[in-house]
Q: What sequence folds into this?
């Protein structure tokens, strides 16, 4: 921060933001990330940079920002059901919704678990449409040796305070397409290319020097934090395995996860419903999250869309009704965690 005051450059793609972009690229092993004010604006910009104004097929099982970004970009969301294994957009459901109006697919890697990458990429190629990923949960996730942020025509991650890695508010846009990145750069800064030339209507999505400085200071801690999360996740798995009616989705073997969240699925054979379990935990001052619930397609601005009909989204409806994310953060005390586990083992006490 001292260097920021000394340079008198507080924002506008200053030296700290550029240094942060370089270190981010090195940490993640991806070329040329573009930092932005937040992931939501990054998604709007990605869709705008692709010139998408028609239909965008997306998942209703996400945070509302995914669909809001489609509207803000001037396009129309179409909801596709999710895959019961990945909990992400189902390639076959997307295939059924593709029409001449389809201009992009916007998938989300929920909980850092990758979408069905190979199938979605083949589908996008076959139909000649771009594939954008809401990668808000995917910081630090690798598929084999490659960052999950490096997949798709464009991917956008979040550095919001609640994420695995944060700059208070912030995010980054990733793409391998230099022409697309050039349009992204302009859109981040009101559409300007150079001093006087405005390419397109843009927005202000610049990351300030202060936020970039926070990012630079946080970067050395993220590997340790992910490790601490992983240890806690293993303790949850050990403690909760074999409980009738509770199950958890695990990432495929070739994926190195970031352990961002620990969702459990509450089945019919568990003594309590998901909502009753959530209330029971809250009575003991344990605040789990029904995440993602409700589905975006059931929210007021979207529920009247033809693709929002609950019967057409049976897997997403089922998962949203049964999922619960348990407390998980690097400093979670093992005694507290054991208490959470014992309450889940015996929810009658
Ligand atoms: C957090 C989140 C966002 C929004 O990120 P911001 O940086 O807060 O704009 C978008 N999508 C998903 C899935 C998220 O979890």
A:
């Amino acid at each position: 921060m001292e260097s920021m005051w000394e340079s008198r450059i507080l924002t506008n793609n200053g030296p700290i933001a550029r240094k942060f972009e370089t270190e981010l690229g090195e940490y993640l092993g991806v070329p040329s990330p573009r930092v932005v004010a937040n992931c939501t604006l990054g998604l709007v910009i990605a869709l705008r940079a692709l010139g998408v104004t028609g239909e965008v097929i997306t998942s209703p099982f996400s945070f509302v920002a995914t669909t809001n970004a489609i509207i803000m970009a001037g396009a129309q969301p179409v909801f596709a059901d999710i895959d019961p294994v990945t909990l992400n957009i189902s390639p076959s459901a997307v295939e059924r919704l593709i029409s001449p109006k389809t201009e992009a697919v916007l998938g989300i890697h929920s909980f850092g678990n990758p979408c069905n990458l190979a199938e979605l990429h083949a589908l996008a190629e076959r139909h000649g449409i771009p594939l954008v990923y809401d990668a808000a949960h995917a910081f630090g996730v690798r598929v084999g040796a490659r960052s999950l942020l490096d997949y798709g025509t464009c991917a956008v991650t979040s550095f919001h305070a609640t994420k695995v890695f944060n700059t208070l508010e912030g995010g980054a846009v990733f793409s391998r397409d230099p022409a697309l990145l050039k349009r992204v750069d302009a859109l981040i800064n009101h559409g300007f290319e150079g001093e006087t030339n405005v390419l397109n209507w843009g927005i202000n999505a610049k990351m300030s020097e202060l936020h970039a400085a926070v990012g630079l200071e946080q970067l050395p801690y993220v590997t340790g934090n992910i490790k601490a999360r992983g240890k806690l996740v293993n303790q949850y798995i050990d403690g909760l395995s074999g409980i009738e009616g509770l199950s958890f989705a695990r990432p495929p073997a070739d994926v190195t996860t970031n352990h961002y969240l620990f969702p459990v699925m509450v089945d019919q054979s568990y003594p309590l419903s998901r909502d009753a379990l959530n209330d029971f935990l809250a009575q003991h001052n344990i605040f789990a999250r029904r995440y993602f619930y409700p589905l975006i397609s059931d929210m007021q601005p979207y529920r009247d869309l033809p693709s929002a009909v609950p019967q057409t989204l049976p897997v997403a409806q089922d998962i949203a009704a049964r999922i619960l994310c348990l407390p998980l953060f690097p400093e979670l005390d093992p005694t507290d965690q054991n208490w959470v586990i014992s309450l889940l083992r015996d929810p009658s006490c």
